[in-house]
Amino acid sequence: MGISKIFGGRSVLEFADEHSRRSFLRNAALVGVGITYVATRPGDPVAFGNADRGFRNEVAKSDLDILNYALTLEYLESAFYTMGLKAKLLKGRELELVDPIQQHEANHVTAVKTTIKDLGGTPVAAPKVKFPTGTFTSRAAFLKTAGTFEELGVKAYHGQVPLVKDGNILAAAASIAGVESRHAAVIAQISGGNPFPAPIEGHLGMAPMLKAAMPFIAK
Amino acid sequence: MTDTIRDLIHGNASVVPAGVAMGALSHGFELAGAKDFGSDVDVLNYALTLEYLEAEFYRQGNKAGLLSGKEKKYLMQIGDDEASHVATITATIQKIGGSPIGAPAVDFGGAFDSRKSYLTTAHIFENKGVGAYLGAAGFVKDKMILQAAAGIFGVEARHAAVVGNLLGLKAEGGVYMGSTEVGIPKNDVLKAVAPFLRDPDKVVAAITY
To answer: Which ipTM did the prediction report?
Structure first.
């Protein structure tokens, strides 16, 4: 999915105050703005032990920076599902399938936060978000946005794999990423999308992920 | 609609004690024994063995004519994914100078007796695959290989979830296996797939996908 297509260019993220906005921008500054992302086709059939996967463009970050980046994404997902479920758009089997996702994302927030604290770091504050008008007014819009979120989340986790230094953090991140993959597949399955868009999931670096959000940050 | 995430998260976090979440995360790379794998080629050949099993499983299962409609389409896609994993891992082993292991001779017994037995076996296979990748990940030294393996691991998780849903299993514990995936040590994975290996030492000369 092209960056320009994310949320159809609608505003996704607005921060509560100038402080939240600055802490988010600080992450962006770590990787630089305007970095060119070279997309790699997922499922490259030739071989995958290739060093030229675009991650070279990423400036070295600490594991704590990466964890706070993951935390920001989990905050977003958790809030998204909390608001979506509150809107009562789903019922029956669909509700049964989406309900645990909200709990998973909340657990991820707690787990990532705790890990950051255990490492002596400071978890970033949760930003205030405002999802585009209409996101929670229909079942279709909710599930479509959910699918976009999950696919992005999966790629964001994979994008950090080569950069994480601590093996235990890598294991924890992988154990979360796999659950996001399950979410992505189930959301696609119930909303008429493709649960298996590629034989190998792709990855997205921090720079393009943040770049995607930059235009939508409230001034 | 505008809400502060802080409020939302706070409400949710109180439900889940941090210790529980971290306990789930502590299942990690320690699970696989220290001597399980000596090199990246070893890990990749282990993954290749599992992918061979899965690819052959779906090849036979999809020929059995047990499914129709969307189910059939999904299982065809899953089979294609597994075949692609075999090809990709084989090429990767060759690229880093290793020798890809041969395909094991397999016998899936009564797995293809019915739609239910096919999907149930698939569900078990996929969840074992997810655990196997996570359990072995700590042994991979090349970070680019690890990243690609993570991409395969995620696809196995997708398969597991979708097949679980096709079976109509309960969401938590059937479609999802909790907030975090759990790694499975090599020995436990091999024990689980042993019934399908006709003769572990007998290798099928040429399965080409």
So the answer is: 0.83
